[in-house]
């Protein structure tokens, strides 16, 4: 566009020079004034062309810089996305929003701590191939992590098959609501585990995972620990150890609470008190509470399971209509008759 404009202006200048050289301008004064005007216009034309060339170069440089910035932004977004997978979303958000400094610091806060692991993990997985074990463990951790994030939990770390999660930092709903969210999360996890157990058995896994959960509420030290070169956002303290100890005495597929947690959630959660235990680092006797109603009454009646050496029976009434139940009952009666005849 600028080239066409300059061409027309150049043609106009050439035409003006031709007019000046002709005899059409008879007045000397007119010729002199027209010559001055033409000379000024030529100078203006040259300055304009020079400015346009400078502008074009600047535009090209700006485009180059913008393209480079786009590439840098894309790279930063990619790195940011990858980095986010190593941090809890709440921590990631607080760092990138500037709410939290990346420095060695900690504070005392009342948190609700969740600790879980798989009962007899080593014995359960001894006969599994490493690839199958990796896929199964990653599936389990993915499912549990999704539930944790949906309930607002801060995922602290994975320790093999164990998971540590806490509520109350860097975001909190208040001590009572944090505790309630944590227990609700644990119940949702155990209910999902029941579904996963059926799925895993259906894929040929003979001994599906059974999770145990310990939950405790108390004052912990939370923050960044480590060195200036490498630090970890985590929690420490006796109350964290207590959550791990409660998990250790928990029944498979169950949830065990400390009294402190139970007192905060007792309006909504039913639990049965167990025998007091002593925990290293905690002076008081600890009263554990086993959560009841993890699998509601209707649900527990719809999953019929029996497993011993040489026998595995699993009837999922959710998937059977009336005709299917009748057919299954006939099949089971036939199996029973064969068993009795063989005896």
Give a description of the structure.
With 343 residues, this protein is α+β, with helices and mostly antiparallel strands. The chain has three domains: 2-80; 108-295, Nucleotide cyclase, GGDEF domain (Alpha-Beta Plaits); 304-342, no CATH class. It has ten helices and twelve strands. It has helices at 2-21, 28-84, 89-96, 121-125, 130-150, 175-202, 238-248, 259-265, 297-302, 322-342, and strands at residues 105-118, 154-159, 162-167, 211-226, 231-236, 255-257, 271-273, 277-279, 282-286, 289-291, 303-308, 311-316. Strands 1, 2, 3, 4, 5, 6, 7 and 10 form an eight-stranded mixed sheet that branches. The protein has a two-stranded antiparallel ribbon with strand order 8-9. It has a two-stranded antiparallel sheet with strand order 11-12. A hairpin with a 4-residue loop joins strand 4 (211-226) and strand 5. Helix 5 packs antiparallel against helix 6 (175-202).
């Amino acid at each position: 566009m600028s080239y066409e404009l300059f061409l027309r202006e150049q043609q106009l200048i050439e035409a003006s020079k031709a007019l000046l050289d002709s005899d059409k301008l008879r007045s000397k004064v007119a010729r002199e004034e027209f010559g001055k005007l033409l000379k000024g216009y030529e100078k203006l034309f040259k300055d304009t062309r020079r400015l346009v060339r400078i502008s074009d170069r600047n535009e090209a440089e700006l485009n180059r810089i913008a393209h480079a910035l786009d590439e840098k932004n894309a790279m930063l977004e990619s790195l940011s996305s990858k980095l986010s997978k190593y941090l809890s979303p709440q921590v990631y958000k607080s760092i990138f929003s500037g709410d939290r400094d990346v420095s060695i610091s900690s504070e005392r806060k009342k948190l609700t701590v969740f600790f879980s692991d798989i009962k007899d993990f080593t014995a359960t997985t001894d006969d599994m191939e490493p690839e199958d074990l990796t896929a199964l463990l990653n599936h389990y951790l993915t499912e549990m992590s999704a539930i944790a994030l949906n309930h607002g939990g801060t995922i602290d770390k994975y320790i093999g098959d164990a998971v540590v999660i806490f509520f109350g930092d860097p975001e909190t709903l208040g001590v009572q609501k944090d505790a309630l969210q944590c227990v609700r999360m644990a119940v949702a996890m155990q209910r999902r585990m029941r579904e996963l157990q059926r799925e895993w058995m259906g894929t040929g896994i003979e001994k599906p995972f059974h999770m145990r959960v310990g939950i405790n509420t108390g004052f912990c030290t939370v923050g960044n620990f480590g060195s200036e070169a490498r630090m970890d956002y985590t929690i420490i303290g006796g109350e964290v150890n207590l959550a791990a100890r409660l998990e250790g005495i928990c029944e498979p597929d169950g949830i065990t609470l400390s009294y402190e947690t139970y007192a905060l959630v007792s309006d909504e959660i039913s639990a049965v008190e167990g025998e007091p235990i002593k925990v290293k680092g905690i002076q008081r006797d600890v009263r554990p509470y086993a959560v009841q109603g993890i699998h509601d009454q209707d649900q527990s009646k719809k999953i019929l399971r029996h497993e011993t050496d040489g026998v595995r029976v699993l009837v999922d009434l959710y998937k059977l209509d009336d005709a299917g139940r009748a057919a299954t009952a006939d099949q089971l009666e036939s199996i029973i008759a064969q068993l009795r005849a063989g005896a």
